[in-house]
Design brief:
By secondary structure, this protein is mainly α. It is built from 6 helices and no strands. The chain has one domain. About 25% of the residues are buried.
Length: about 170
C-alpha cells in the first residue's frame, strides 16, 4: 500500500487551494443570501492575491485559471465567454505581477501595475466580444469605485503582509 506524503509547503498549498475553492463557491450563495452584490468586489482577484501571497507563482497561475471555471461550474456565473475573459485577466495579472516583483521587489508597485495592465487587456478583449455580439452586457459592469476599492485592498493588505514577513519576493 502506497502512502502520499506531503511536505509542509505542499500541504500548506493544498490547504490554501481548498480554502480558495470553498470561498469561490460560497461567494454566490452568500451574495444571494445577504442580498449584497459581493461579486462587485472582485472576489476572484482578492483570492488570486491570497494565492500569490501564500504560495508560489505556479500555484497562483493555476488558481487564476481554476477559480473562474469552478465558479461557472458550481453557480453558472460568470457565463462561458466571460469566464475565459476572467481567466485571461487573472492569469495575466499573476504573470505580470510575478515578473515585476521579481525584478523590483516592490509589492505595491508590481501589484498596481499588474492589476491595471490586466484590466486594460480585459476591457479591450471584452469590447471586441461585445462588438462581435459574442457577449451581452455593458463594457463596464462593475462600478469603477468598487474596482479601485479592490485595488486599494490588494495594495494595502498585500503590502502589510509582505512587510510583516520582511520580504518582497514571490
Amino acid at each position: 500500500m502506497s502512502t502520499l506524503v506531503l511536505d509542509r509547503p505542499a500541504l500548506k498549498t493544498v490547504l490554501l487551494d481548498a480554502l480558495l475553492c470553498v470561498a469561490v463557491v460560497a461567494v454566490p450563495a452568500l451574495s444571494h443570501a445577504a442580498a449584497l452584490p459581493l461579486y462587485r468586489f472582485e472576489p476572484m482577484r482578492l483570492l488570486l492575491f491570497a494565492a500569490i501571497l501564500c504560495s508560489n507563482r505556479r500555484n497562483a497561475l493555476a488558481m487564476a485559471l481554476c477559480l473562474p471555471l469552478l465558479s461557472t461550474l458550481t453557480s453558472g456565473h460568470p457565463v462561458f465567454p466571460k469566464v475565459v475573459l476572467i481567466q485571461g485577466e487573472l492569469a495575466l495579472n499573476a504573470l505580470v505581477f510575478c515578473a515585476l516583483v521579481r525584478r523590483s521587489h516592490r509589492f505595491v508597485l508590481a501589484a498596481a501595475v499588474s492589476v491595471l495592465a490586466a484590466k486594460a487587456v480585459y476591457y479591450a478583449a471584452k469590447f471586441v466580444l461585445i462588438e462581435a455580439a459574442l457577449l451581452d452586457g455593458d463594457l463596464v459592469a462593475t462600478p469603477w469605485t468598487c474596482q479601485f476599492a479592490v485595488l486599494g485592498i490588494v495594495l494595502v493588505g498585500g503590502g502589510v503582509v509582505r512587510r510583516a514577513r520582511g520580504t518582497g519576493r514571490v
